[in-house]
Design goal:
It contains eleven helices and three strands, in the order H-E-H-H-E-E-H-H-H-H-H-H-H-H. The chain is mostly helical and 233 residues long. It folds into two domains: 6-67, Winged helix-like DNA-binding domain superfamily/Winged helix DNA-binding domain (Arc Repressor Mutant, subunit A); 73-232, Four Helix Bundle (Hemerythrin (Met), subunit A), CATH 1.20.120.
Length: 233
């Protein structure tokens, strides 16, 4: 078992603070504040922030410091549509090599996700962790390391939006249904169906976020186009 370093611990706490909204978009993350809260020295905090910068969870502004990224509606649209394409590609590649043992692994993650949803109160961070394990399994099977890294970075960029949307009961149960249908399609060796469901699953999350943002007809063209094209999602 890998022992968590102090930098890893700091990274995990900062990540959770960003995802749950304790650190808001545009807010500066100060080393001294984090070190004081976690009761650790500043060097591991500095290392943690470097790790999070690489992961896409924070941005460094020259001579100003480290900040939580701000994202526009256009940014969200770009990330989710790219993410949908990468997840679809990973599913295509993974289905060429997946074994019964690996399908059982996906089913195990799905079972834990379903149990997490039934638990009161809902632990959204736990659900997100299991959700990520599910998709990471497919990414690893795909065997394309660059695809996995790019998809992980995109996922990190919108993790705080995912945390918000998954608190909507309808979206949460929709997420579970999509994952169950994806696993069934993989078990049935129905590649085109599994890929379509994977793409829809990601774009459905974008649709939920658009609705949560209460975007009006005057929204930017790329979002209006998506809403029209996504009616069947």
């Amino acid at each position: 078992m890998k022992v968590e370093s102090i930098a890893d611990l700091a990274s995990r706490h900062i990540r959770d603070w960003i995802i749950t909204g304790e650190f808001q978009p545009g807010q500066q993350i100060k080393e001294e504040e984090v070190s004081r809260r976690l009761r650790i020295s500043r060097p591991p905090v500095r290392e943690a922030l470097k790790m999070l910068e690489i992961a896409g969870l924070v941005v460094r502004k020259p001579r100003r410091g480290v900040f939580v990224p701000e994202m526009t509606e256009k940014d969200m649209w770009e990330v989710y549509t790219l993410k949908a394409s990468l997840y679809e590609m990973a599913t295509t590649l993974a289905m060429d090599v997946i074994t019964a043992k690996e399908i059982k692994k996906l089913e195990s993650f799905l079972g834990k996700m379903e149990a997490c949803v039934e638990k009161i109160p809902l632990d959204v961070l736990r659900y997100q962790s299991l959700h990520r394990d599910f998709h990471d399994t497919i990414m690893v099977l795909a065997g394309n390391e660059r695809l996995r890294v790019f998809a992980s970075n995109l996922h990190n960029q919108v993790s705080r939006f995912s945390y918000t949307s998954l608190q909507d009961s309808g979206h949460l149960h929709s997420s579970i249904r999509y994952h169950r249908e994806i696993v069934n399609a993989i078990k049935g060796k129905k590649k085109s169906l599994a890929c379509r469901l994977m793409r829809e699953h990601v774009l459905n999350a974008l649709e939920v976020l658009i609705n949560m943002c209460s975007l009006k007809p005057g929204a930017p063209d790329h979002l209006r186009i998506y809403r029209g094209a996504g009616a069947s999602v």
